[in-house]
Write a structure and sequence with these properties.
Elements (H helix, E strand, L loop, with lengths): L8 E6 L11 H4 L4 H14 L3 E6 L3 H11 L5 E5 L8 H10 L3 E5 L21 E4 L4 H13 L2
Parallel strand pairs: 1-2, 1-3, 3-4, 4-5
Helix pairs in contact: 2-5, 3-4
This protein binds 1,3,4-trihydroxy-5-OXO-cyclohexanecarboxylic acid (DQA).
Length: about 150
């Protein structure tokens, strides 16, 4: 058993349809799988002295429960809520409630896409937002925590 890393845990949350990464609209989302993303993000987190907990769910309530559980146990949250970004007041309220620093990530540049993707319910309660950097966005989010957390 390895001992916990000194800077605490980053919760890396992926929402609906992101389990299909690698096969889903590769022209938009690329060819890396969710497992690739989680491996790269975990490696970046561990290199910076954080542990990483990765969770993907297609169910809003599961994502809500994970955010609630992060209160008091995680140092920060990296969240790509997928389509829930554009619909979920509940996820917004959960992020606001737990008062943890959170980085919103989108693989694609949502602002270059359909109008309905331009609005995020989450951005106003996140510390930072990273869009359009492809899967590098997750590592950029880790880097942000590396630079801003104790
Ligand atoms: C996404 C963008 C969302 O609009 C979309 O519903 C997704 C993925 C992205 O990572 O670019 O599922 O969050």
């Amino acid at each position: 058993m390895t001992s916990p890393r000194p800077r605490g845990t980053l919760l890396i949350l992926n929402g609906p349809n992101l389990n299909l990464l690698g096969t889903r609209e590769p022209g938009i989302y690329g060819t890396a799988s969710l497992a690739d993303v989680e491996r790269l993000t975990t490696a970046a987190a561990e290199a910076a002295g954080f542990d990483a907990t990765c969770l993907q769910s297609n169910h809003e309530g599961v994502l809500l429960d994970a955010i609630h559980a992060a209160r008091g146990t995680a140092a920060g949250i990296i969240i790509n809520a997928g389509a829930y970004t554009h619909t979920s007041v509940a996820l917004r309220d959960a992020l606001a409630a737990v008062e943890l620093p959170a980085v919103e990530v989108h693989i694609s540049n949502v602002h270059l896409r359909e109008e309905f993707r331009h609005h995020s319910y989450l951005s106003a309660v996140c510390t930072a937002v990273i869009v359009g950097a492809g899967i590098h966005g997750y590592e950029l989010a880790v880097n942000f925590f590396d630079k801003t957390l104790a």
